Every structure is written in structure tokens, then in C-alpha cells.
Amino acid sequence: MNIKLLELFCLIVEEGSISGAARRAYQSQPSVTKSIRYLEDEYGALLFHREKGQISLTEVGHTLYPHAKAILSEYKNSVEAVRYQNEKIQSQLKIGASFTIGEYLLPSVISKYKKQKDDQLQLFINNTPRILEMLEENVIDLAFVEGEVTGEAFNQRAIANDEIVLFVSPSDPWADRTHILTSDLKNHKLISREKDSGTRKIIQEHLANHRISPISPYLELSTTQAVKSAVQSGLGYGFASRFAVEQEIKNHLLVHVPVADLKISRPLWSVTKPLRFEKPAIETFLRMTKDMLGRDERS
């Protein structure tokens, strides 16, 4: 049933005439008359007596009126409740990010965003496959990943370019070298992320392009921070995003050793699901992220 029909019915009762109801509803009198006939057809009964230009409720009309008022009242309450809840939801932003982006890039963006917006914000950090699963399952609104994104269900945009660099501890034999070659990699101990890591996958792809068979890690760890700590303690060498190690390199806690015949770069992606109603906060956060990371690349 069209709620507008009940509204017109109640207006006629309260105004005492179809013409009065038409004025209040900003409709023509014939249009209101036609709507009431639709309502009577809906209930299968006459709702008004029409005699000599006068209109009055039938017994059925008297029965319907309090129910119609209650329905309209509940409808209004439901609209207000949904609007309130929707505004509350719109002010919540749930972001998922793979480890490198979530731990080293997004904190500064989140800090700036929170200074400008009072939105509730949650950040979930995991590997790329799990973050994309969370997006697919609507656990999060927006994803940031450095790994491969597959499937037609997602919209993806490159937000920045990243470089994967090799690093060692200051006490490592490689620390004083101006560069190494890919042929040197098998002669030292690799400290690596887990198999599902986007960073590890892209390293393996680039090494394969250089006809270097996969290097078995001396130690496999689940976070970049753990890899950095292991390398810093002198256990071997590691690969990581330049964003993840720039502070340690600047403070001489780690040393970047260029690989002369290997350059690994990759795009960092923002990923969303196509939605009929997208939260405005998503585009705001995306624009801020791209602006800030773009500045980092240029600096």
C-alpha cells in the first residue's frame, strides 16, 4: 500500500472536505478523489458518504481512521530511526590494510583525517588475501593493499608507487658495499615474510624474471617489524618497502644495500566494492591518502 493514500485519507477527515485536503497536499481535487477511490478499492469498502457536495465517514471509515493515524505515526518514527541510524553508520569508516600500508603509511593519514573529521574510524591490518576477503564480506568499507587484486567485484585505484629495498644490519658484511648483485643473494641468509605476503610474492616474481630460482628463507616471520628486528640483530638480510625501513635507515639502525641488477617497484592500491550508496567518508579518506602519499613520493 502507498503510504500517501493513507495521508490523503486522514487529511480529508481532518479538513472535512476533499478540496481542503487537496490544498494542504498541493494536489488537484480530481487527483485526491482518484486516490481515495484507489484506497477504497484496496479495502474493498466505501470510506466516505458523498451527499450533496458534503462528505462524511462511513462506519468503515471511522474504523480505519485511528489505524491510519497509527500507521502514519509509526511510518514517521521509522523514517526518523532509519535516518538516525544511517547518519550514524555514515560517520563510521572501517579500513583494512595490508601490513606495510597499515603499519607505516596510514597512521599519518589517519591522524590528519581525525583532526578534520569527527568520524569513528577503525583500522584492520592483515595480509592482502585476508583484507580482500574482509572487503568482500562487507566487514570493511575500504581496503589498501600492495598485493595482487583479482576479481571483477572490486574497484581499484593506484594511490602511490613503492620500491622494495634490500637492507642489512650495520654490522653485516654487506653494509660497507656500494652494491651487490642478484647472484650474491643465495650466499647469504634471507629473512622473509610469510608466503601470502604481497612483498614476498613480488620479490619472487622479480627474481624469477632474472632466472633466479626461489630462495629458501633462513627465517620466515609474519610481520615486517619482526623481519626488521631479526635483520637488525644480524641474522641476515631482508626485503621491505622503502616506507617501512626509511626511519631505521635514517637513524643508522639498518643499512640499505642496492642490488645493482634488480629494481623492484610496485603500485599501492586502494580497493572498494561498487555500492549503490557509498559513504562520503570513503572518497574523503581516499583523496587525503593519495595527496599525502603523493607528496612523500615527490619529497
From TrEMBL:
Residues 1-58 form the HTH lysR-type domain. It comes from the Bacteria. Keywords: DNA-binding, Transcription, Transcription regulation. One of its GO terms (molecular function) is DNA-binding transcription factor activity. It holds the Pfam family HTH_1. The keyword Transcription regulation applies. Coiled coil: none annotated. The keyword Transcription regulation applies. InterPro entries: LysR_HTH_N, LysR_subst-bd, WH-like_DNA-bd_sf, WH_DNA-bd_sf. Belongs to the LysR transcriptional regulatory family. This is DNA-binding transcriptional LysR family regulator.
